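User: Can you predict the 3D structure for this chain?
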Amino acid sequence: MSTAVVSDTWYMTQRQFMAFLRQPAYLIITLIQPVIWLFLFGALFRRVVEIPGFGSGSYLDYLVPGVIVMSAVSSNMWAGMGTLEEIERGTLNRFLITPVRRSALMNANVVMQAMTTAFQSVIIVLLGWIGGAHYPGGAAGLIVLIVASSVLGTIFGAFSNALGMLVRERESIIGINTFLLLPLTFLSSAFMATTLMPHWMQVVARFNPVNWALEAGRSAMSAHADWWSVLSHGGWLVLLSAAAVWLSMRTFRSYQKSV
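Assistant: Here is the predicted structure, written as structure tokens:
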């Protein structure tokens, strides 16, 4: 990647960041929603750990990675709405006649979403710690979890951007996101150990990128980190994120040809 592309991407990311800060209500909701999940689900399912075979001493310890990953998925799924809004306003078309690199226009949105996801993840980690969660893997394990959630956010952010340029309808984006969010979350180990799931759910979870992020994060956060699991699941996440970014760029080129 050339220096010019990096520079343009960073400039456009700053623009996205300033637009994000100008929406205090959205910023507050973005932070409050994971807090509700953390303490609501933590209180509701805290006795799940008593089920034989669950394998965790504290449900809050188990839940923190699940909330971080669910937050990454839910917030990044709506990235395409921002892209669609820029298309409708004509902002994106105006940028097409500037010298800014075309890849920077799309990458900035993805980078912004990844940074937001990382910030949310840190907040959830701190709130979990205040609530009594333990992190045996230390700083290294937490860094892996935050990076994994950010890469997962990149996957869904890039996919949402591609979707926004393809369908160009808010209703379609809302419908698809609503359809995918809960199945992707509950067909993973976000709230329940996979060993206690029906067999068919265990099979689906193996191919679910949401579960890859959870497996990588939890493996790194355990007292005896399984780095092979971290590398294997993290590798699949990186490959899928590269494919999602490529798809986003391909749909953007198709959009360019249509204007």
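The CA atoms of residues 58 and 238 lie 30 Å apart. The chain has a mean pLDDT of 85.
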